[in-house]
Amino acid sequence: MSTEPLRFDNRFLRELPGDEEDGPRVREVRGAAWSSVLPTPVANPTLLAYSPTLAAQLGLGQDLLDSADFPRVFGGNALYAGMQPWAANYGGHQFGHWAGQLGDGRAISLGELLAPDGARWELQLKGAGRTPYSRGADGRAVLRSSIREFLCSEAMYHLGVPTTRALSLVATGEAVVRDMFYDGHPEPEPGAVVCRVAPSFLRFGSFELPASRGDVDLLRKLVDFCIARDFPALADAGADRYSAWFAQVCERTAVLVAHWMRVGFVHGVMNTDNLSILGLTIDYGPYGWVDDYDPDWTPNTTDAQGRRYRFGTQPQVAYWNLTRLAQALSPLFDDVAPLHAGLARFQAVHAQREREDIAAKFGLAACRDDDVAMMAAWLQILQDGEMDMTLAFRGLMRFDPQAPDPAVLEDAFYSMERRSEVLPAVQAWLQQYAARLRSDALDAAARQQRMAAANPLYVLRNWLAQEAIEQAEQGDLSGVHALQEVLRHPYDRQPGREHYAGKRPEWARDKAGCSMLSCSS
Ligand code: AMP
Ligand code: MG
After folding, report:
1. Active-site residue 224, yes or no?
2. Which of 48, 101, 210, 316 is most enclosed, with most CB atoms within 10 A?
3. Structure confidence at residue 3 as a pLDDT band (50, 70, 90)
């Protein structure tokens, strides 16, 4: 190959026990954290998009990105020297129930790349074919869900939300058959492979699986490995390092969900196999962005009945997931007090972040106790008035406390009827907000700056993703590329790109892919 050799150092394979058998035969894998398995080659790997910002961080030069090998490697047809593909073993609680062994059924890690700055990044293909963990499924991914994962991973990064990244989107040139709504209508769809990138893909479920089998030896190895590789600052914490590590996991998870609530993101499938031990947003499936504010909304049709993973309950679900992790880790602790202390850290950090976000989103110097009630009242108005969450907060940025005028919220309404209903409440609330702003230390410029940094203008609204997907399915990638660009600066007003800041159009209200998504991907 014409390019500088990339440096790989596959610690996960070197330091953790692996499966004795290679290849994709479906099986139960005990006593091992991974299985060697190669990506299944595809008919015609074609590069559709890549992230230039991530490529630069990884030290991938333009010659490598432009080479004919790049789509072959990131479509699963070739390997760079040093890559040693594997699928990871893990379990998980799905929708509240222990599901046993799950593992990477359609994800295959290629290796741990050492970037020029010394950072370690695991490169992982999603949709690369069968693994020992595929059970009855095909190990593939469709273009629509791959576009959604590719765009949203990078959008989240630019929003400042912890996340796995996405390097590339490669079309396979093969069809994948999916029954999108599990209603007996399977259809062939174009297939794709995304290369996801993260310092670690370990999940809560990675620890739950050995614990569920009473394999304390493997559990301990995993925790020691995770601390050594992913939390090096804790490696010297001595006998207390397990406690310190669990507390950090709790803190990071608290910070993560607080971000989701700040930007209006609904993960959609917060099973414990989909919660990253690093507190990253991981596994973009039937996620969604809140349009009209509704804490009970979930984009996931598979969860429409119980709505376990609706927007408003994400902090509670994260906490519940941490209790599952604590349970799994308990064999490593003589005393459960540090586990309880970790869970208490979650509550404290989450409450603290919530207050910081209230201050930032309202443009206040600091959050007072009565501001918490003011936020609750505001959110109730958004819900009653069926108002767009993103546009309502951006509207508040233009609000002048010397001349309170509800016109700044005009573009946030979806229905004129609802608007009339809530207008008196809006006016009363704005008076209260105006008084609060007049008593605050920040001047108008500082306030607006603070608000602009906490309230994104451009988010990957479901209908925007859907527009780009439908174009891409016709062979036109310009919509994907345009969204990539816009979402690189989500907090900055971008003249000429008003379309991307628009509220959900009427055609998208009840359309598949916009308001309804399933796990079928
Ligand atoms: P998810 O809902 O994507 O988090 O997946 C839950 C489990 O199902 C994981 O073990 C996945 O690897 C597996 N899985 C999901 N889709 C597929 C697929 N198309 N082929 C094989 N395994 C899959
Ligand atoms: Mg998953």
Report:
1. no
2. 210
3. low
Is residue 196 within 6 Å of ligand 1 at its C-beta? no
Contacts for 415 with CB less than 8 Å, ≥ 6 apart: 386
Pocket test for ligand 1, best of 34, 106, 142 (most atoms within 8 A of CB): 106
- What spacing in Å lies between the alpha carbon of 62 and ligand 2's midpoint? 32
Q: Is the torsion defined by CA of 163, 481, 51, 124 positive or negative?
A: positive
Q: Which one of the ligands is nearest to 149 CA? A: 1
Question: Which residues sit opposite 192 in a β-bridge?
Answer: 171
Is-contact 521 142, C-beta < 8 A? yes
291 by Cβ neighbours in 10 Å (0-12 / 13-18 / 19+) ranks as buried
Q: Is the pLDDT of residue 4 over 90?
A: no
Nearest one of 420, 423, 394 to 406, comparing CA atoms: 423
Start-end of H helices in 67-160: 69-75, 143-159
Of 93, 128, 84, 509, residue with least CA distance to 291: 509
Question: Do residues 442 and 250 make contact, with C-beta atoms less than 8 angstroms apart?
Answer: no
Cα within 13 Å of Cα(332), Cβ side: 28
Residue 352 and residue 346: Cα distance in Å, rounded? 10
pLDDT per residue as tens digits for the range 57-73: 999 999 999 999 999 99
- Please give the structure tokens belonging to residue 508: 């998208």
β-bridge pairing 120-126 and 34-36: unpaired
Q: Over 90: is that where the pLDDT of 499 sits? A: yes
Q: Look up residue 296 and give its DSSP letter.
A: T
pTM to 2 decimal places: 0.97
Q: Which of 308, 391, 325, 315 is nearest to 352 (CA)?
A: 315
Q: How confident is the model over 246-290, as pLDDT tens digits?
A: 999 999 999 999 999 999 999 999 999 999 999 999 999 999 999
Question: What does the alpha-carbon distance between residue 319 and residue 342 come to, in Å, rounded to a whole number?
Answer: 11
In this model, does residue 2 exceed pLDDT 50? no
CA of residue 502 to ligand 2 center, whole Å = 31
Instruction: Tell me the two tokens of residue 369.
Output: 């106790």
The per-residue DSSP string of 197-242 comes to EES---BHHHHHHHHHTT-HHHHHHHHHHHHHHH-GGGTT-GGGHH
Q: Rounded to an integer, what is the distance from CA 105 to the centroid of its chain?
A: 19
Amino acid identity of 429? Answer: W
pLDDT tens string 194-228: 999 999 999 999 999 999 999 999 999 999 999 99
Dihedrals phi, psi of 333, to nearest 5 degrees: -115, 135
Are residues 72 and 171 in contact, defined by beta-carbon separation less than 8 angstroms? Answer: no
Residues 6 or more apart whose CB falls under 8 angstroms from that of 267 comprise 260, 274, 281, 287, 309, 314
What are the structural domain ranges in the chain? Answer: 7-201, 205-359, 366-439, 462-508
Taking the C-alpha atoms of residue 397 and residue 446, their distance in angstroms, rounded to an integer, is 11
% pLDDT > 70, the chain: 99
